[in-house]
Amino acid sequence: MVKLSVNKLSDLGEFGLIKRFKRNSFVCNGVIKGIGDDTAVVHLSKNKYQLLTTDMLVENVHFTNKMSARSIGHKALAVNLSDIAAMGGTPKYALISIGVPASLSFRFLDQVYQGINQTAKKYGVSLVGGDTNRSGKIIINVTLIGEVKRQGLTTRSGAKVGDQIFVTGRLGHSYKSGWHLRFQPRICEAQYLVEHFKPTSMIDISDGFVCDLGHILRTNHVSAVINESRIPKRKGANLKSALYDGEDFELLFTLSLNNAKRLINDKVLKVYPVGEIVKGKPVVYLNEKNKSAILNGGYKHF
Ligand code: ADP
Ligand code: MG
Questions:
Q1: Residues 190-205: b if buried by 16+ CB within 10 A, e if exposed
Q2: Ligand 1 center to residue 107 CA distance, Å?
Q3: Cα 302 to the chain's mean position, in Å?
């Protein structure tokens, strides 16, 4: 029998690669959650956990040098804020590392930092350090540290059969419409949800609705049925782009049926109910289980 060898990153995929890193990583006692959620969670104090997350923006993957430098700076921090939001947390401190070509104008970088600083101020984040290097393309990596009350910690794990699935905003067409450069991370919305409705699980949508819902399903060994007519689409988006495009940075969360009913009638926060968690393999069904299409995919880096 011919044995196929897998040795290219494209064979393994982004998530296969992350699984490999996790397999060999050393983790000690204070780590509550390591690789595998929107942020890591570690011990902080009697009542609080610390949250740690990092995200890298790469020129021509997440932005181009034709886009507004201020907006690129905003995005670099906001994608990390979105991960802190997904855990129900409060952002605190940021470290920023950049790789830049020597030919880049320092005005461009000044504007990137204006964007970072403006967003940092708005969300109460202190910039406390970083690193600077030369590189062929512009790379901006932000590490963000936050906190969460122990009882408020919300992770990808916890969704149960019968739970209702919600998103916090319209989906799709983010990159082409420029939304990815101006979105506001759902920090306040997440904290309101955690305090009043206790989501059973939560994730931010960075790789596409179906892909990120897939993480919740695999973590909890359940299926989801999505109601096509309920998917909120951004202006210019069709169903396919709402389901699969990346970079929405909305929150996707699950609630018990009782809390879902309360939230639908809530006057403060407008959210969109899109489907239900059901028993079965970790796949997403469109409209009705067994009678309809199974959705696959999302943004893949490799
Ligand atoms: P998100 O889209 O929420 O930022 P990712 O899909 O990038 O999450 O990452 C999923 C998990 O894998 C996270 O826990 C993240 O910290 C971890 N991870 C991603 N890349 C690496 C890496 N190169 N080494 C170790 N852990 C990683
Ligand atoms: Mg995330």
A1: bbebbeebebbbbbbb
A2: 32
A3: 18
Q: Looking at this protein, which amino acid is placed at residue 244?
A: Y
Angle at 182 between CA 178 and CA 185, to 5 degrees: 130
Q: Over the stretch 285-302, which tens digit does the pLDDT of each residue have? A: 998 877 667 776 555 555
Q: Give dist(CA 201, CA 293) in Å, integer.
A: 24
Contact 207, 299 (CB under 8 A): yes
Q: Which residue has the tokens 């995005």?
A: 75
69 vs 111: CA distance, rounded Å: 5
DSSP 8-state symbol, 25: -
Q: How far is CA 289 from the centre of its chain?
A: 27
Q: Which tens digits make up the pLDDT trace of 160-214? A: 999 999 999 999 999 999 999 999 999 999 999 999 999 999 999 999 999 999 9
> Which of 9, 18, 213, 247 best tests ligand 1's pocket when mutated (most atoms within 8 Å of CB)?
18
Is residue 141 within 8 A of residue 56, CB to CB? The reply is yes
Q: Which of 23, 33, 35 to mutate to test the pocket of ligand 1 (most atoms within 8 A of CB)?
A: 35
Ligand 2 centroid – CA 75 distance (Å): 14
Cα of 37 vs centre of ligand 2, distance in Å, is 7
| Interacting residues of 43 by C-beta distance below 8 A, sequence separation 6+ | 30, 31, 32, 49, 50
> What is the SS3 assignment for 97?
strand
Question: How is residue 32 written in tokens?
Answer: 């509550």
Contact 209, 249 (CB under 8 A): no
